[in-house]
Write a structure and sequence with these properties.
7-stranded mixed beta sheet, alpha+beta, 24 strands
């Protein structure tokens, strides 16, 4: 066992040892295998999809709720959310440095678009204030050269050997549009399309007489882009994952579904306010949240009231329910289904293997002053103190994280580093045996943002290398002591258990629009449901978590539509 595995095992043991007293409307389980139901619906997973499902169930008419087509006819529904860790929020992780209060930093999901109607409606309904994020470009650091944003349309300024056609595309549309141009050229019917129209076009599209969803994205664009053009395009996308060989339909949607000029919004007091607010509303409606309970298996049992599902948790607790909602990432789901037959999708393979986990890594570094401002120059929005810069170094993305306005020359300021895929292996190599995570339950703070920050410390070697790359990115000699070192930092590697990755892409060969409903209810004639971002048609977004939760609620429980 390596050091990282040992640390994860130790943390898992700590989480498993937390026994939280049962509260609310679920009776304390006993040792008998046959007993009445402890809960009507058990939801495992305290992220957005799980808490949203619980909240909606508790606010529906209990007499109309049905399980396997049969209405319960009860005057009161009993719903409990079980969370394996002691933190509610899932892959949303809002933090704030105690040395820089008032500025919320997102180690997890951080933005949404107004075109994502489910998310927009939910945020409005919950009364959460939004802020418009500055996503403008400042410059790029490519092959040892700093390229100003104003030169993104000048092929002679780019240190890449582009083809003649690629040079013309750069002149007309800019270097960040190379991948888009290739896709539009391969699938001409997509030109000018966005949103629903684009998605419907991609579902029926073919390239070389092969359905588009059978293509790997990398295989597809390699026929229209040179290796130099592909590498430039992927670097300027900010995410190596956007050039992977995942399902071409879904990756094209990731690349083309953002209409130029579309704003990105975040939540003013932290993206994690969404699950926190849902938890408050769920509990106020009579629902119950139990943290520190890790599900290890589920089985059918016979109760005096009919067939039920017995849940077995790592702590030894057993709970019997009528229906089970698994609001969990695929990494945590797969061990639970090893004993249950899941249908295949023909030659493509088992449904639970329809998606792949995408690793993402974020680090926030607090500096005593914004020394980088003088290096930024003009950005695409005209500002000089916000936005982002990209590089081909392992740091990949550098965001100038300002809550509002520009920081003064002598005030603290924050930078966010953001990378994915193989770049994360570089940073993992700098852990040097230091435990990067601590148990947030043991952090002495009543403030959730402070607790989240303090439970994600950065190993010294990793922090030093990140600072060195930030200096190089801005054209500064890393041995120059003129520029201050960071005074605080926090980071999250989303490969760590139980997540296995931050987001998910569909694998080639799987038609996501046909399969999402099947995966929500994977076992025939069984009240077991899967929801979350992974198996949605809006993967990588909170919108996807809401999409699959709504399918489970409306199609299987009979809850009225919210969206």
């Amino acid at each position: 066992m390596n050091r990282r595995s040992f640390a994860q095992s130790l943390l898992g043991s700590v989480a498993a040892s937390i026994v939280v007293p049962q509260r609310g409307n679920c009776a304390e389980p006993d040792a008998r295998h046959e007993r009445t139901f402890d809960c009507d619906v058990a939801i495992v997973g305290g992220g957005v999809s799980g808490l949203y499902a619980g909240w909606r169930l508790m606010n529906a008419d209990p007499r109309q709720i049905r399980i396997l087509g049969n209405t319960l006819g009860q005057s009161r529904l009993r719903v409990t959310v079980f969370e394996g860790s002691c933190r509610i929020g899932g892959r949303l992780l809002s933090t704030a440095s105690p040395r820089f209060p008032g500025v919320t930093c997102e180690l997890g999901g951080m933005r949404f678009m107004p075109t994502q109607l489910r998310m927009s409606k939910l945020v409005s309904y919950l009364g959460l204030s939004t802020i418009t994020m500055n996503t403008s470009f400042s410059f790029a650091f490519l092959r040892g050269r700093r390229i100003a944003f104003s030169d993104f349309t000048n092929p002679d300024a780019l240190p890449y050997q582009l083809s003649g056609e690629e040079r013309e595309w750069v002149k007309e549309f800019g270097a960040t549009s190379l991948m888009d141009c290739a896709v539009r050229d391969l699938v001409p019917a997509t030109r000018g399309l966005h949103g629903k129209q684009l998605y419907e076009c991609l579902q029926s599209a073919q390239v070389s007489d092969v359905p588009l969803f059978q293509w790997g994205f990398w295989n597809l664009v390699a026929s229209r882009l040179s290796s130099e053009g592909f590498n430039l395009s992927r670097t300027l996308s900010g995410f190596d994952a956007l050039g992977e060989n995942a399902n071409a339909v879904d990756l094209i949607m990731q690349a083309l579904d953002v209409i130029p000029g579309t704003p990105f919004y975040s939540i003013k007091d932290g993206f994690e306010q969404i699950p926190w607010t849902l938890q408050t509303k769920f509990e106020a409606s009579g629902g119950n949240v139990v943290p520190g309970e890790w599900l290890t298996r589920f089985d059918w049992i016979q109760t005096p009231s009919g067939r039920g599902i017995r849940l077995t948790f790592r702590s030894g607790r057993n709970v019997v329910c009528r229906a089970l909602v698994l609001a969990m990432p695929p990494r945590a789901l797969r061990p639970l289904f090893m004993r249950w037959p899941i249908p295949n999708n023909g030659e493509a393979g088992p449904l639970l293997d329809a998606v792949q986990s995408i690793p993402l890594f974020k680090m926030f570094l607090l500096y005593p002053r914004p020394w980088w401002n003088k290096f930024l120059g003009a950005t695409s929005s005209g500002t000089t103190c916000a936005g982002r810069s990209y590089s081909d170094m392992p740091i990949r993305q550098c965001w100038y994280w300002n809550s509002a306005g520009c920081p003064s020359a002598d005030s603290p300021a924050m930078i966010m580093a953001y990378c994915d895929m193989s770049n994360i292996n570089f940073w993992e190599g700098l852990r040097f045996g230091e435990a990067p995570l601590s148990d947030p339950c043991n952090v002495a703070s009543d403030d959730r943002l402070d607790r989240n920050w303090s439970s994600h410390p950065v190993p010294k070697g990793m922090l030093a290398e990140m600072h060195r790359q930030i200096l190089i990115l801005h054209g500064v000699d890393p041995n120059n002591d003129e520029y201050p070192k960071p005074i605080d930092a926090a980071y999250k590697d989303w490969r760590d258990e139980p997540f296995g990755g931050a987001v998910h892409f569909w694998n080639r060969g799987f038609a996501s629009w046909k399969l999402k409903n099947r995966i929500v209810n994977p076992i025939q004639d069984a009240p077991v449901y899967i929801c979350g971002e992974a198996y949605s048609t809006n993967s990588t977004w909170v919108e996807g978590a809401l999409e699959t939760a709504e399918i489970a609620l409306v199609d299987h429980f009979g809850v009225e539509r919210f969206f």
